[in-house]
Amino acid sequence: MIKLTTRSEYDEAKAKVGQLIAEATAKGMLESEMDNDYTREIAHLSQQMAAYEDEYLKILPLRQKSPLIATIEDYLFAHGLHKKDGARQLGINESQFCQIMSGHRRISMSFAKRLHSQWGINSDLILDYA
């Protein structure tokens, strides 16, 4: 595998991937589980680009949402609640609730208890991810 070492090589590879995706899509050759010249070349270039990004661009990995936060979001959605409504139900202010949801504030024991008792969120999930 050829190693990308300059930004112009990276940009060329990125443009080529875009072109290959457009061509393969137009020809119906980019369905899942397909193995053809297009998919192999896209994979090859993508690996080179990822290696370049890791070494030179220092792109931070995407943060994954905690399963507990995802469960809280699911509860809000299922019950048609906004964050301010959820915060009110759980006895904290909206700012604190938003900080918890974004990962900038830890979940207190009292808040964890209310998640379980008032919303029925699984206690094991709370213990594992709070």
Short description:
By secondary structure, this protein is an all-alpha fold. 67% of the residues lie in helices and 0% in strands. 6% of the residues are buried.
Describe the protein:
The protein is 67% helix and 0% strand. It has seven helices and no strands. The protein folds into two domains: 51 residues; 63 residues, 434 Repressor (Amino-terminal Domain) (Orthogonal Bundle). The model has no long low-confidence stretch (mean pLDDT 90). Helix 1 runs antiparallel to helix 2 and helix 4 crosses helix 5. The chain is elongated, with a radius of gyration of 22 Å. With 130 residues, it is an all-alpha fold.
Task: Give the biggest beta sheet.
Answer: none
SSE order in H/E notation? HHHHHHH
- Could you state the CATH homologous superfamily of the largest domain? lambda repressor-like DNA-binding domains
Estimate the strand proportion: under 5%
Here the CATH topology of the largest domain equals 434 Repressor (Amino-terminal Domain)
Low-confidence stretches: none
Envelope shape: elongated
Terminal Cα span: 43 Å
Structural class: mainly alpha
Q: Could you tell me the number of beta strands?
A: 0
The value of Rg in angstroms is 22 Å
Q: Tell me, what is the CATH class of the largest domain?
A: Mainly Alpha
Mean pLDDT: 90
What is the total number of structural domains?
2
Binned, the helix content reads: 55-70%
State the helix count. 7
